[in-house]
Amino acid sequence: MRRRTKSSLLWGIIGGMLFVVLAQGYLIVVDSLPTSYVGMLSIGLFVGVTVGLISYFTEPYLAAKGRT
Fold it and tell me: Digits of tens for pLDDT over the chain (68 positions)?
C-alpha cells in the first residue's frame, strides 16, 4: 500500500472516530442528540470518508509547498 493511501485511510479513521467520541461525550454531558445511534454512526462514517478524501487530494499540494 502506498504511503499516501495509508495516510489518508488513517486520517479518515481518526476523523470518523473523533466525531463519534465527541457525539458520545455530548450525550453524556449535555443532552440527547436529534439522531439515533445508527444515525450518529452513519454521520461518523460520512465524516471519516470526507476527511480521508480531503487528505488524499490535498497531500500533493502540501508536499509541493514543503509542509509534509
Answer: 888 899 999 999 999 999 999 999 998 899 888 888 899 999 999 999 999 999 999 988 887 887 76
Q: How far is CA 57 from the centre of its chain?
A: 14
- The answer to whether the Cα torsion of 38, 41, 45, 51 is positive or negative is positive
Name the residue ranges covered by the structural domains of the chain. Answer: 3-64
Q: How many CB atoms lie within 10 A of CB 8?
A: 20
Task: Name 27's Cβ contacts closer than 8 Å, sequence gap at least 6.
Answer: 33
